[in-house]
Amino acid sequence: MTISEYRRALVVDVRARGFAIWPDFLDGSAVERLREQATQLAAGEHANPYPKSTRVWDLFRHGEPFVDLLAYPSLTAVLDALLGENHLLSDYSLNVVHPRQPVDNWHIDYPYSEMPAPVAGSVLGLQCVLPLTPFRSVNGATELIPYSHTENSPPGPERTTDPVVFDAEPGSLLLMSAATWHRSGFNTSPHPRSAILLSFVERWVRPMGDAPEPGPWGRTEELRILLGMQRQPETINGVPI
Fold first, then answer.
1. pLDDT digit string (tens) for 226-238?
2. In whole angstroms, what separates CA 203 from the centre of its chain?
3. pLDDT, position 62
4. CA–CA dist 40, 36 (Å, integer)
5. Strands 193-201 and 235-236
6. Rounded CA separation 17/6 (Å)
């Protein structure tokens, strides 16, 4: 299978099942660079402690490795296929889940979580989970319900007894429709579990955060569009307005 065929298979899985898993999305050296940066951030002034985890927001502000990840060509190709060209970054954060964190409630993500009546049939938003440490059932790895992205209400008990667990090594990537019902499991291990979360939306959906000011994160036109710093002109019948 060629790289293009593999990416197409990922897109088909996300649309059909609500998620896809991309093993070895990043190699070991790239993961290690991100993990070193993330470890420092989680212990520094930009860390935000919450009852269930510690978060660091707007990772593009915190070093070139995080900007490089946004510009990764293979990821861009998959996002273009699922969300269309000129899609937008909605959230980019580090999430460190501490030992003994309780199980999350089943939920969906933005923008579906903000809709009075969520729509089905289109991937308006995409949630990506990139582990920096191993994800296992014992440390509360992400759990999800396949095909639930077509449902407008939380899955009943008959659907939640045997969820898919994102059991993965660092550098794998979970691609999940924002409409797929999911949760974090219970971290029974003595160690924290860390991951980078990337959320994207179609170009006409307002991201969760505002566009940043000019900076090194806007080094290319593609990145400026992704971050909402620059907008492609609207068109009528293909003619710019």
1. 999 999 877 777 6
2. 16
3. 97
4. 7
5. unpaired
6. 16
